[in-house]
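go over this record:
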Amino acid sequence: MGSRFLSLADVQEMLNISAAQAYSLVRSGELPAIQVGPKKVWRVEAAKLEEYIEQQYSRTRERIASGEL
């Protein structure tokens, strides 16, 4: 069984984005995350990352259908 929570480094690797982009997604609230522990490290629930990915697929389909892409 996989881990319930992912680090921002995990998110960065899975989405093939920079550390700054991963941090920005979390800070903006676009990708829900929590801060845990005394160092307040960010953690993203794996299910929330999957929901985010599905939302991006949906947005992309809408943009293609509207002729925006």
Remarks:
- The two ends are 38 Å apart (CA to CA).
- The first helix runs from residue 8 to 15.
- The chain has three helices and three strands.
